[in-house]
């Protein structure tokens, strides 16, 4: 099972970090090497440009891929299926035009020119809007084109909006919202290893934002403590091998990280002691 992942750029580090947290530790990789084994002898990793990864998977050079949804759409590959939204690398593809210009709607681009790194997505967007501009492909620094009469507007990526603002461009319409996705070729979907990889990555995402609480509770206060623990399912209650046998039990629960501060106060007030909080590496539901 080969997984193609971004070899550089903003997606590289978070993707490697996610694989490591999912237990797919890379082995005998090296900085300039473009492939690595993992601790699972059946899984190896190929490093490729984010834009090329959909093609690597569609052509069979890799079985699974991790890259931006915008890249998957732009590559227009057939026979791949999305398995998981990895919820990082979020951005939007937007139609933008000079803020002091006269382009205010999509229709204003009829017969105009649009510059973009994403010609396929752009042509599809305008075709669906019934508007027919010239689409000029550039490979970066797209925001310059309206200021040098190369284009009337652009379709480009924005996440913080800084580059658009610094180049005095205003959003006319959102074309697509994107985040990094795990996907696979359709003819490998039934392979158990594909589901194993998907489950491992999903369990890391599921654990994000969750904390594991452990505490000791006198037997007579269990209901009071149980009543103030929020979140998934009920707490786990275990007897304690306790020499002074005062009926104490151990209570464990998974709570959302935003609830931890308040929950600790409330369980202490309800009689809990020795409260421990830990992060969760993976949560397989
Ligand atoms: N602000 C952003 N700009 C560009 N890409 C972004 C941004 N936010 C998220 N992304 C995602 O990252 C992908 C681009 O990754 P890629 O490695 O190709 O470019 P990069 O990280 O900007 O590196 P490079 O400097 O080589 O362009 C986009 O297709 C999109 O999915
Ligand atoms: O909304 P923002 O946070 O400003 O991000 C959007 C900018 O980021 C990307 O450029 P990048 O920095 O990747 O340079 P590049 O165009 O050379 O890829 C993208 O091409 C936009 O220009
Ligand atoms: Mg870039």
From TrEMBL:
Family: Belongs to the ATP phosphoribosyltransferase family. Long subfamily.
Annotated GO biological process: L-histidine biosynthetic process
Keywords assigned: Amino-acid biosynthesis, ATP-binding, Cytoplasm, Glycosyltransferase, Histidine biosynthesis, Magnesium, Metal-binding, Nucleotide-binding, Transferase
Record's protein name: ATP phosphoribosyltransferase
Its job: Catalyzes the condensation of ATP and 5-phosphoribose 1-diphosphate to form N'-(5'-phosphoribosyl)-ATP (PR-ATP). Has a crucial role in the pathway because the rate of histidine biosynthesis seems to be controlled primarily by regulation of HisG enzymatic activity.
NCBIfam families: hisG, HisG_C-term
Native source organism of the sequence: Natronobacterium gregoryi (strain ATCC 43098 / DSM 3393 / CCM 3738 / CIP 104747 / IAM 13177 / JCM 8860 / NBRC 102187 / NCIMB 2189 / SP2)
Regulation: Feedback inhibited by histidine.
Cellular component GO terms, alphabetical: cytoplasm
All copies of domain Histidine biosynthesis HisG C-terminal, residue ranges: 207-282
Domain ATP phosphoribosyltransferase catalytic, first and last residues per copy: 49-201
SUPFAM superfamilies, A to Z: GlnB-like, Periplasmic binding protein-like II
The reaction(s) this protein catalyses: 1-(5-phospho-beta-D-ribosyl)-ATP + diphosphate = 5-phospho-alpha-D-ribose 1-diphosphate + ATP
EC number: 2.4.2.17
Cofactor(s) the protein requires to work: Mg(2+)
Signal peptide location: none
InterPro entries assigned to the protein according to its UniProt record, in alphabetical order: ATP-PRT_HisG_long, ATP_PRibTrfase_cat, ATP_PRibTrfase_HisG, HisG_C, N-reg_PII-like_a/b, N-reg_PII/ATP_PRibTrfase_C
Compartments reported by the entry: Cytoplasm
Enzyme class: transferase
Chief localization: cytoplasm
Pathway field: Amino-acid biosynthesis; L-histidine biosynthesis; L-histidine from 5-phospho-alpha-D-ribose 1-diphosphate: step 1/9
Gene Ontology MF terms: ATP binding; ATP phosphoribosyltransferase activity; magnesium ion binding
Pfam families in alphabetical order: HisG, HisG_C
């Amino acid at each position: 099972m080969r997984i193609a992942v971004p070899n550089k750029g903003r997606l590289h580090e978070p993707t490697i970090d996610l694989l490591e947290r999912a237990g797919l530790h890379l082995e005998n990789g090296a900085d300039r090497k473009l492939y690595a084994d993992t601790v699972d002898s059946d899984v190896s990793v190929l490093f490729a440009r984010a834009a090329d990864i959909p093609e690597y998977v569609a052509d069979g050079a890799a079985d699974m891929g991790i890259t931006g949804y915008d890249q998957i759409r732009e590559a227009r590959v057939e026979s791949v299926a999305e398995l998981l939204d990895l919820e990082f690398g979020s951005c939007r593809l937007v139609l933008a035009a000079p803020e002091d210009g006269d382009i205010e709607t999509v229709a204003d681009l009829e017969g105009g020119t649009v510059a973009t790194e994403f010609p396929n997505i752009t042509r599809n967007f305008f075709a669906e809007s019934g508007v027919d501009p010239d689409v000029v492909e550039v490979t970066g620094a797209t925001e310059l084109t309206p200021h040098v009469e190369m284009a009337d507007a652009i379709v480009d990526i924005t996440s913080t909006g800084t580059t658009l603002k610094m180049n005095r461009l205003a959003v006319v319409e959102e074309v697509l919202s994107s985040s990094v996705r795990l996907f696979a070729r359709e003819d490998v979907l039934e392979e158990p290893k594909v589901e194993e990889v998907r489950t491992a990555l999903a369990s890391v995402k599921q654990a994000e934002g969750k904390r594991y609480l452990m505490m000791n509770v006198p037997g007579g206060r269990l209901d009071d403590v149980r009543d103030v623990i929020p979140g998934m399912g009920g707490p786990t209650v275990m007897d304690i091998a306790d020499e002074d046998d005062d009926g104490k039990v151990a209570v464990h629960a998974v709570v959302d990280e935003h609830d931890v501060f308040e929950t600790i106060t409330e369980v202490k007030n309800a009689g809990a002691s020795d409260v421990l909080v830990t992060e969760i590496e993976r949560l397989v539901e």
